[in-house]
Amino acid sequence: MPMQRDRYPSRWQEIALQVKTEANWKCEECGRECRKVGETLSEFIDRVVPKVHCTDSCDLLHEINAKPTRFVLTTAHLNHIPEDCTRCNLKALCSVCHCRMDLKAMAHKKMLKREYLGQLNLFNS
């Protein structure tokens, strides 16, 4: 589902940046190093790819060049409610982990969207 920007607080960019900074620009789920705001791809590669020549370094370099969007750090709402920006509800996730989390919660997210748009829920009191 596309992001509904009007549901996020006006300070969302600042809040999201704080969460990512506190996570040291690593995914809090899988530990993947991610690009910092304003960091070029070559600066990111210099920061995360070990200078020693080994297979792991070559594999990482190939993955970064082939799929750089996998190294984008996002801020996820764990309860999928954009208005709830309490720190315990936010987690820094790489784009892969964020997508995985959202896919697992798709039915729940659709229900939340319907409720937000005014549909009543007969199962919650």
UniProtKB/TrEMBL annotation:
<keyword id="KW-0378">Hydrolase</keyword>
<protein>
    <submittedName>
        <fullName>HNH endonuclease</fullName>
    </submittedName>
</protein>
<keyword id="KW-0540">Nuclease</keyword>
<dbReference type="GO" id="GO:0004519">
    <property type="term" value="F:endonuclease activity"/>
</dbReference>
<keyword id="KW-0255">Endonuclease</keyword>
